[in-house]
Amino acid sequence: METASDYSVKVGGEAGQGINTIGSILSKSFAGQGLYLFAHQDYYSRVRGGHNFYQVRVASSPVYSFSDSIEVLVALDQASLDLHAEEVRADGIIIYDQNNIEPDKQTENLLGLPMAELGKEHGGKKIMGNTVAAGAVWQVMGGEPGILENVLNKLFLNKGSKIAEANIKAARAGADYAAKNFSGQCACSLEKTDHTGSMVLTGNEALALGSLAAGCRFMSSYPMTPASGVMQYIARQARRLPLAFEQAEDEIAAINMAIGAACAGVRSMVATSGSGFSLMVEGLSLAGISETPLVIILGQRPGPATGMATRTEQSDLLFSMHAGNGEFPRAIIAPATAEEAFWAAVHAFNVAEKYQVPVFILSDQHLADSYSTVEPFDLKAVSIERGDILDETELNSMAEYKRYLITESGVSPRAFPGQSEKCVVITGNEHAESGYSTEDPVVRNQMADKRMRKFKGLAEEVKPPVIYGSEKPETLLLTWGSSYGACREAVDLGNKQGENMQVVHLPQLWPFPGKQVQELISRAERTVTVEMNTSGQLGRLLRTETGLQPACAVLKYDGRPMNAGYVLEHLKEGGVLPW
Amino acid sequence: METASDYSVKVGGEAGQGINTIGSILSKSFAGQGLYLFAHQDYYSRVRGGHNFYQVRVASSPVYSFSDSIEVLVALDQASLDLHAEEVRADGIIIYDQNNIEPDKQTENLLGLPMAELGKEHGGKKIMGNTVAAGAVWQVMGGEPGILENVLNKLFLNKGSKIAEANIKAARAGADYAAKNFSGQCACSLEKTDHTGSMVLTGNEALALGSLAAGCRFMSSYPMTPASGVMQYIARQARRLPLAFEQAEDEIAAINMAIGAACAGVRSMVATSGSGFSLMVEGLSLAGISETPLVIILGQRPGPATGMATRTEQSDLLFSMHAGNGEFPRAIIAPATAEEAFWAAVHAFNVAEKYQVPVFILSDQHLADSYSTVEPFDLKAVSIERGDILDETELNSMAEYKRYLITESGVSPRAFPGQSEKCVVITGNEHAESGYSTEDPVVRNQMADKRMRKFKGLAEEVKPPVIYGSEKPETLLLTWGSSYGACREAVDLGNKQGENMQVVHLPQLWPFPGKQVQELISRAERTVTVEMNTSGQLGRLLRTETGLQPACAVLKYDGRPMNAGYVLEHLKEGGVLPW
Amino acid sequence: MVVNAKDYDLDRENTWCPGCGNFAIMDVLKKTLAELDLPPHRVLAVSGIGQAGKMTDHIRVNTMHVLHGRLLPVATGASLADSGLKVIAVGGDGDGYAEGGNHLIHAARRNIDVTYMVHNNMIYGLTKGQASPTSGQGAHTPTTPDGNPLDGLNPIQLVLGLKAAFVARSFSGNKKQLGAILKKAFQKKGFAFIDILQPCPSFNKVNTNSWFKDRVYDINTEGHDTADIVQAFKLAQEWGERIPTGIFFDDREDRAGFRESLLGSTDRPLAGANLDPMDITEIMEKHL
Amino acid sequence: MVVNAKDYDLDRENTWCPGCGNFAIMDVLKKTLAELDLPPHRVLAVSGIGQAGKMTDHIRVNTMHVLHGRLLPVATGASLADSGLKVIAVGGDGDGYAEGGNHLIHAARRNIDVTYMVHNNMIYGLTKGQASPTSGQGAHTPTTPDGNPLDGLNPIQLVLGLKAAFVARSFSGNKKQLGAILKKAFQKKGFAFIDILQPCPSFNKVNTNSWFKDRVYDINTEGHDTADIVQAFKLAQEWGERIPTGIFFDDREDRAGFRESLLGSTDRPLAGANLDPMDITEIMEKHL
Ligand SMILES: Cc1ncc(C[n+]2csc(CCOP(=O)(O)OP(=O)(O)O)c2C)c(N)n1
Ligand SMILES: Cc1ncc(C[n+]2csc(CCOP(=O)(O)OP(=O)(O)O)c2C)c(N)n1
Ligand code: SF4
Ligand code: SF4
Ligand SMILES: [Mg+2]
Ligand SMILES: [Mg+2]
Question: Do A223 and D49 touch (CB under 8 A)?
Fold first, then answer.
């Protein structure tokens, strides 16, 4: 990392205290200053109380993960001081409200800021103390005042200009207080670059945006952390676009509604997490045999069952790969960053329709909730490929429409009910080409073979492995999903320290790009898998598909994301071997 | 096979015509004569009409599968003649009702039997024609009359002695007619051995019996072919034993009821098929994290979705292995025969309770519905091992009961609500030893590790591979479940023809007995997997667990079971390679 | 266009048993669709799994033969996607009141634009005779070999409790009534529910054709006010010696169908072979 | 034994928001259990997932904190297995009326021996404010940002449609009424259902404590005949300016609880640490 600045700000407090407000004001301001950022959130499954934090890392070149040490801690409650003071670097600072919190005598670098008081005085409400804090942090870090005020204006404008103004006043009060009392205390000094105009986006937001760009017109889902963000984003657009969103009564209804809509001709999706996906498994199998295009966003979190609702994990890879009774083709895409998430959604809808199969996007809480700076997407580069769909003229010229026509590719041309005078027959039973049920053994074989033949086409469209680091590495880190960020930074750090490392991340895990992975592994001295689960699922898949076994695995399953430090430390220890 | 007699009788007709009556009369009579049998059923997913058959193979030594050629065809309708006349051997016979069916002129070996007429005349009802047919078959095959009559007596006694007598009269009429008109036509001549006293049992019945013997006290399920037989058997005993059976409103309720009962202290189970199991996946995951002992009988049939409801397949192995969000230990047992099915159930309940995990019994339609002769089970050999359960004295002496006490084995001593004054706290969230929810990362790691540690104990109790055939084989057939029968007979046939073959069947697939399998494979020149699915699931599992890959795979997925002929033929062709 | 009942015929073997009530229901359905001049390709029938669900094997319209109990969500999605389709859902009592019970609650709440026909034979036909939620107390079935210990569920009471827009009961043995009700149901905006008593001669030896015939009577000819849900609920309590049939409730409050309430209009197009990309530039800009 | 409400206290941090109606409900529950002299170890509380479900984190009894929406089947199994337990089910409106709707239908049909408390805050609390089936028309939530297009489900109507043995509505702000109803519910044989209106100050800004207070009235003090289900259904139609609360229906037909109807007796033992092997010799002999 040749970053000039690389700072971390942590805002800690109880649920409901507004740490997200401070966090997102700062994040957007950092982006406005032309810097890159990565911000992750840590919260409990409760609405009030508990200890949550929002940690944003800002740097002058792209960042993919978080640091263990922080430059600025904003403590909104006692617990934040108690828990995180240690993480503050020697030249860092701790900003807290001296009217509420009594710090330990030994704690250093403490800067008292009467947040609530100033908030009430300048913004009219105690809760404006959050904006006061943002203003103070921005000031001590050396941000350009106009940028922060711009952000506040944008953020609060829809609540009325009065509120926006009050916030700006509060921010100024914080900045003034900091200028007067904290000057020279903070070692940070934010650069300003001309890399402005980037978006600040979570993985969930990127998935939703990508789905909209891809022409998703129907979404039915049931709320579940960490996937709710996707549906809530889509729901907000539904009235403005030709798009229906419905909160289903349960996940079973959600997937079956989406299947109904998809069969009727619209691009459809669902989003859920593990427990909810468990309930969709029968519907998945229906999509498989009825050859219905469907996109399933599976936001992973620690299981089993309800597990830890607001935490992160990557333990549903093999589950999603084998879910559903019987055998049918599918695709599994797993973006590593918000940027990738957008394109993953576009790819998912195209693959789903071209091959008439269910397509998974595996996400996880760390990807779903973390913000990063992303360049605006080139919407012209979004191509919508719907595959073989008959038009009315073609349909009219046919004697009979066969929904499950047997073809070499395994893909049968689609038509929709009501599109022409030809009736469309869709079913979840084994069937003849017509769509009507059959138990004929010969036809059964033909249909099973036809479905399985789609694997070939699916394999040709697999998103190839993403490679970063040394060309002929001593250590290859094989990883997937949001763990990529930690691995990528570990490679940078390691190589700086004289190691010879590479990271290979698989943005698509099924069909498995076996040949390419084998080739990459053969060039490395040793391969280590890195993922967030107990059993080393990518490692198992690697072995199934290539016969190869990683030298060891770096795993984590305590619900908290890993970073570069964790990866390097565990590599030294020889990894955590699950086998 | 050193069998002296080895005959096959096929009874074909429409659903509702009573082919099962004829089939089971004959089967029980064969057993009464001291012979061994294997009888399989082929039926459509409809209540009336269609073409079904019941095919019984009888021999003087044990048989495990069915033949392609038959000695006796009983045709109750035209279709049975049209479809099966070809399968009849040159020295075989076809018995049909000349009053209903007009055979093709070319068909040979036809013996007309006025079934309905004789039924009406001697039994009082046309439908007694079925018993007439059974009597005639018994006569031409040379069975001892008293044995058949015994069977009829037993079969119909609960319907009143009049009905039993009428049936005996009808059977005699059939026998008399055959004696008069068919004598010398049939090459069969049934031996009589002193190997009497064996049961005639389907896989479903054996599973139900095994569950009862194991002390199952609670079953909740939702009807689904081919698993309904298990629940209906259990339901019949419920009022007579300390046992509750309830037909749930859906499969979700079924598994959650069973979990509730299991947590309250009783041995509980569910039975279902693929679609229904799909709906149980979330409950499975709950059993995983709440460490609830549970037995799941999964009767496989062809999918995806509703697929072919009354047919057979083995395509839910990897699904059941990976089902459920998050990671947790489980066991998967897959009996090959009715005999094994009984002991599988006993094993399943013991393993479930000792390790407090969900245990699968994978069955399939072919195993579930096929009859075979089985020695009465030695009930004294059934040992019930419940694992670590605290008694009231122990509980009273404790300050606090910890449901999820962390132990070396991963197993925490159990107690039940209401058992003592100690409250029991059970949960589907991640939790502390007490059972109360926690998100503490350290405790999470401890709990995940504790659960996964159970694998060790589970692995120690794995049912070892079953080996049959040559000791140092050129060809090792690696198989599981009901495909074993075909493989075993293929080995016998092959070895007779000078091949050097062995079959290894895995009565338990998870934890996978990797070392033992590796050892066996290393002694063989080539290994071929044999199973009923498209993707070679056992082959994939083998590779995941050992890195080894079979030379080829013999697969079948048209919904009809395989037999020795199919296996040998496809071995010659080099198998069907799914990879 | 003049549509004929024969236009809905399919040349496929019918697998129902002789004497099954399903035949009459299918006849009436075809005739009613023809009377309403609905051409086959403008009709979508979504069916569950069971003997009733096999209806879609024998009627030439667009069909989705889906999972056991999941016909209503599929119908919901399909009807939202395409406003040009007349959507029918057809399934059995097990399908609708056991496996699919939750969706019934929410289909009524949403007032989905679907006519839902439940062939209530008070038994599981396809899987060979197990008890259904509507099986009567004492019914001997393979899963209740000692007699069903529970009273049967009364679907009319349930659906009135959900305040569905249109609630009716008919009987396969009364084609005239069934036809008249079906016609009204198809013309109703939103969710129309019809529980159709249907003898299953193969497995239900208690609730036979004549058992029903002896008991059913028509509440509409007796002057029931179908706008009065409380009165309807009162009538629905009756089940035994006399069984009320007819339209129990036909909501005069002209509630919007789900398509209209969710999409804000009855004909906002979602479906079709043409997918015009939506312009999301403005949405994206909010993240700048 | 004299049991005290304090005996149910647990020394664990409570994670509900200040002002949440759940606190009052928990208080009343503990007091009622004490009044009934039920020692903690003879009580089993099965809870769903949601803020309401977190009740089992804060009350010292046997607990099973299970899946979202699945509390009733678990309670059914547990209550069948052990007749010595007083079984309570507790969950939210999303848990019970959305995810778990089907089980509600069948719990009522079976008349399971369970008292079911639904904390109806007309919102999804734990997942931060999405609409619930009982959310009112127009409610602005993250999943209905343009206002809920649908009328809220009326649980009392629904459960009366199921003819549950005991049907009541109360309000967390009326502890006296809630206590009296809970007590009767616990004493009822079979399934007792109580919908408890509960303000969620964090996410439901419409149906607040004072909104409820201004509307609720007690149907029992106004002389409603709780044996009359039709009258109850009529009362249940009301929702708006006035909201009826109290016991709507208390079936005088002394229906058997599910344990009795399924097992043929109220105390056939299934559960326990001792598992005497069942002798199946006779059953096996039938196959000879
Ligand atoms: C998830 C699932 N569970 C169970 C089944 C098996 N199954 C098929 S039809 C049926 C019940 C049929 O009864 P009903 O719905 O009343 O229809 P009928 O055959 O009586 O018309 C069942 C249990 C299934 N196909 N899928
Ligand atoms: C299968 C499944 N789907 C979704 C969720 C996420 N979830 C947890 S609680 C909840 C809803 C909570 O609302 P409610 O039941 O009304 O309880 P409240 O928090 O309002 O008391 C949801 C959707 C889950 N845990 N499991
Ligand atoms: S089993 Fe019953 S419902 Fe099914 S077709 Fe036969 S008679 Fe009709
Ligand atoms: S979110 Fe609402 S229901 Fe949940 S604890 Fe807070 S106030 Fe109560
Ligand atoms: Mg039925
Ligand atoms: Mg709620």
Answer: no
| pLDDT tens figures, B280-297 | 999 999 999 999 999 999
**Residue in B closest to A50 by C-alpha:** B439
Q: Which range of residues forms the domain containing residue C222?
A: 5-287
Q: What angle do CA D150, D152, D155 make, to 5 degrees?
A: 145
Q: Report which protein residue has its CA nearest ligand 2's atom 13.
A: D124
Same domain? For B264 and B350 the reply is yes
Question: What domain range is B562 assigned to?
Answer: 466-572
Of B225, B275, B280, the residue with max ligand 1 atoms within 8 A of its CB, to mutate for a pocket test, comes to B275
Which positions ≥6 away from B25 have C-beta within 8 Å?
B131, B134, B148, B151, B152, B155, B171
Q: Are residues B164 and B270 in the same domain?
A: no
Question: Mutating which of D68, D104, D140 best tests the A interface, going by the most A Cβ atoms within 10 A?
Answer: D68
- Nearest CB to D161: which of C133, C150, C157? C157
Domain for residue A433, yes or no? Answer: no
**Averaged pLDDT, B45-56:** 91
Q: Is residue B297 part of a domain?
A: yes
Its sign, for the CA torsion C37, C38, C40, C42, is positive
What is the whole-number distance in angstroms between the Cα of residue D206 and the centre of ligand 4?
A: 14
Domain count of chain C? 1
Chain D hits for A223, Cβ within 8 Å: 124, 127, 130, 143
Last residue of a domain, one of A140, A171, A197: A197
pLDDT at residue C273, as a whole number: 67
Q: Which residues of A67-178 form beta strands (DSSP E)?
A: 70-75, 88-96, 110-112
Concatenated DSSP letters of A205-236 = HHHHHHHHHTT--EEEE---TTTHHHHHHHHH
Is the minimum CB–CB distance between C66 and chain A shorter than 8 Å? yes
The stretch C241-258 carries a mean pLDDT of 96
Which of C63, C81, C106 comes nearest A249 by C-beta?
C106
Q: Based on the fold, state whether residues A270 and A342 are members of the same structural domain.
A: yes
| B19-32 helix and B145-156 helix, angle to the nearest 10 degrees | 120
Instruction: Convert the pLDDT of each residue in D55-68 to its tens digit.
Output: 999 999 999 999 99
Kindly identify which residue of chain B lies nearest to residue A308, measuring between CA atoms: B430
D149 min Cα distance to partner chain A (Å): 10
Q: What is the B554 CA–ligand 1 centroid distance (Å)?
A: 33
Q: Which of D132, D202, D204 maximizes ligand 4 atoms within 8 Å of its Cβ, making it the mutation to test the pocket?
A: D202
- Residues from chain A that touch B306, judged by Cβ atoms under 8 A, are 289, 428-429
Cβ(C207) to ligand 3 under 6 A?
no
The CATH number assigned to the domain holding B489 equals 3.40.50.920
Q: How many structural domains is chain B composed of?
A: 3
Q: What pLDDT score does A47 carry?
A: 87
Mark whether B278 and B133 lie in a shared domain: no
- Here the CATH number for the domain that contains residue D19 is 3.40.50.970
Centre a 10 Å sphere on the Cβ of residue B264 and count the other Cβ atoms it contains.
31
Distance CA C99, CA C93 (A): 9
Q: Are B476 and B527 in contact (CB under 8 A)?
A: yes
DSSP secondary-structure letter at B437?
B
Q: What is the CATH number of the domain that holds B273?
A: 3.40.50.970
